[in-house]
């Protein structure tokens, strides 16, 4: 593979690679604001300037400049090489590039950084970008000087609502145009644009429009500073208090890779954001997927319950397990898997079904929604394929075909249930293992609290038949446990031990798997699920 030399280090590149892309592939960051690997090149921030040595088929331009001579106390004529943006310069075999080792580059970055901060408001304490802001990072690495301008800064509109999800602060904006390019190139809705020039520039909406559609929150995600913020996360948390875990979006069958940001002090999950995976979701997520973080703290099943409606009462987990086992021993049990739960949870329940002698299973799921050709799959469930794999040789039928069962053992509360199925369920005794309330929890006679996908390890199988791992963030809420663990405890109570006491036991029983590219082990700061007793 051809290579360039960057600051003395050999960097391989592919045909068409720019310097910054080749460096990024090797884990080397060249400072930048406007460049993004998923967007076209704008080369307007000038932060990624590098010095390229002359070579046989590429000459170097030298500029005449005036340089300050401290000894003479005056400017004197001098020369310097013309620097080039690394985001735009294509790699050539044998090219020698100076980034961190060039004094000309260091001075240029320092000046660019100072220029960008001339009119920038010093509101870092209340800015949601604080702690992960490129302006802060590059001030520390490339500037480190106090502000010299003493004139009044240029004031621009603040807290402008671009739509139902995004708030814009023009004073913070460095007009990198990432948001403009994203809406035009990825979302296919060129509703944003730049107006004015120089320090009067700002981002504006097309006349009569607002920022809308399924990908508005990605404008916040690509913004390198605090100019665009989501109403969902705005003023909700300080990022330095958050930890992150690798997860998978439960919003649809695409299975977008994501970072789960959680507060270990409270167990709250205030944010979900994209995790790069070229094979699945590239760099993006849809708005509905980002907002699935709300499921972790809203409509949760946190304790065991007995009874329906007004007769429902809270009990300890042991009592709930005993009551569930008593109902199931009555015979004629229908087992319901869930396309919203992990493959491990479904596999454990299918194994219990086999031990109980059932010959077929049922599947609860959400109905299809509005997919698109960008990311969103028509299948509104993250794990239909995983549930099908968990069923194995047992026939898996739609929940709507369930009838005549005396007892229903169901996994998951989130599902779409038609009126006929509601009537069929009303005639049965229902035991539900769920993390969130829904049709299958409202009519449950016994309710067992399961950990959410954000609180335990597990896998989803996406539309590409790729099995993708997600890892626990915060500890399970309330008295909840991983779904497979509850099933295993229920099996032991029934005298039908299925042999699962650890997550590793379930994984081993499931056998070989087709894992996704770019998969990685759980991060060091990811909390493990609660251990089985």
Your description of this structure?
The protein is α/β, with parallel strands linked by helices. Among the domains are: 115 residues, Ubiquitin-like (UB roll), CATH 3.10.20.740; 207 residues, Rossmann fold, CATH 3.40.50. The strands form seven sheets. An eight-stranded mixed β-sheet has the order 17-16-23-22-21-18-19-20, covered by helices on one side. Strands 2-1-7-3-6 form a five-stranded mixed β-sheet, sandwiched between helices. The protein has a three-stranded antiparallel β-sheet with strand order 8-9-12.
Number of DSSP helical runs: 13
CATH topology of the domain at 304-510: Rossmann fold
Mean pLDDT metric: 93
Major sheet: arrangement of strands: 17-16-23-22-21-18-19-20
Biggest sheet layout? 8 strands, mixed
CATH architecture name of the domain at 304-510: 3-Layer(aba) Sandwich
* Helix content percent band: 10-25%
The separation of the N and C termini measures 53 Å
**What would you call the shape?**
elongated
The top level CATH class name of the domain at 304-510: Alpha Beta
Q: What structural class should be given to the helix and strand makeup?
A: alpha/beta
DSSP strand content: 15-25%
Strand segment tally: 25
Give me the Rg, rounded: 28 Å
- List segments where confidence is low: pLDDT < 50 over at least 5 consecutive residues: 518-533
Please supply descriptive tags for the structure shown above.
533 residues, alpha/beta, Ubiquitin-like (UB roll), Rossmann fold, five-stranded mixed sheet, disordered C terminus
């Amino acid at each position: 593979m051809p290579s360039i030399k960057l600051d003395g280090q050999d960097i391989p590149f592919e045909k068409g690679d720019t310097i910054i892309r080749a460096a990024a592939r090797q884990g080397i960051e060249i400072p930048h604001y406007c460049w993004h690997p998923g967007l076209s090149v704008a080369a307007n921030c000038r932060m990624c300037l590098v010095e390229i040595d002359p070579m046989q088929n590429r000459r170097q331009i030298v500029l005449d400049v005036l340089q300050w001579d401290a000894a003479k106390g005056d400017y004197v004529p001098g020369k310097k090489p013309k620097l080039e943006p690394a985001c735009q310069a294509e790699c050539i075999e044998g090219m020698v590039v100076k980034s961190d080792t060039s004094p000309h580059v260091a001075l240029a970055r320092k000046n660019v950084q100072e220029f960008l901060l001339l009119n920038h408001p010093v509101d870092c304490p209340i800015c949601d970008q604080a702690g992960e802001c490129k302006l802060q990072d590059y001030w520390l690495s490339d500037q480190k000087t106090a502000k010299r301008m003493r004139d009044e800064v240029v004031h621009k509109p603040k807290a402008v609502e671009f739509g139902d999800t995004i708030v814009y602060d023009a004073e913070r904006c460095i007009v990198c145009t990432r948001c403009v390019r994203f809406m035009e190139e990825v979302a296919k809705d060129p509703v944003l644009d730049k107006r004015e020039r120089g320090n009067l520039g700002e981002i504006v909406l097309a006349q009569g429009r607002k920022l809308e559609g399924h990908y508005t929150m990605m404008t916040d995600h690509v913004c390198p500073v605090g100019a665009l913020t989501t109403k969902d996360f705005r003023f909700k948390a300080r990022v330095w208090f958050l930890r992150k875990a690798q997860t998978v979006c439960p919003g649809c069958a695409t299975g977008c890779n994501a970072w789960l940001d959680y507060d270990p002090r409270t167990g709250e999950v205030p944010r979900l954001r994209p995790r790069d995976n070229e094979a699945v979701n590239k760099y993006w997520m849809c708005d509905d997927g980002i907002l699935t973080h709300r499921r972790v703290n809203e409509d949760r099943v946190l304790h065991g319950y007995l009874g329906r409606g007004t007769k429902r009462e809270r009990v300890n987990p042991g009592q709930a397990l005993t009551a569930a086992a008593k109902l199931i021993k009555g015979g004629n049990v229908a087992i319901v898997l869930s396309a919203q739960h992990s493959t491990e949870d479904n596999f454990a329940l299918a194994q219990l079904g086999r031990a109980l002698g059932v010959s077929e299973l049922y599947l609860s799921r959400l109905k299809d929604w509005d997919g698109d050709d960008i990311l969103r799959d028509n299948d509104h469930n993250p794990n239909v394929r995983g549930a099908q794999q968990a069923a194995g040789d047992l026939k898996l039928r739609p929940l709507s075909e369930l009838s005549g069962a005396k007892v229903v053992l169901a996994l998951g509360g989130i599902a779409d249930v038609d009126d006929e199925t509601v009537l069929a369920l009303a005639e049965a005794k229902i035991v539900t293992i769920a993390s969130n309330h829904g049709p299958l929890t409202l009519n449950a006679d016994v309710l067992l609290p399961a950990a959410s996908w954000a609180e335990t390890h597990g896998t989803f199988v996406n539309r590409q038949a790729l099995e993708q791992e997600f890892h626990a963030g915060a500890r399970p809420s309330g008295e909840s446990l991983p779904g497979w663990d509850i099933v295993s405890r229920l099996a032991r109570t029934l005298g039908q031990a299925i042999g699962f006491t650890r997550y590793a036991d379930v994984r081993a029983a499931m056998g070989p798997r087709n894992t996704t590219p770019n998969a990685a082990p759980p991060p060091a700061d990811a909390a493990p699920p609660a251990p089985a007793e």
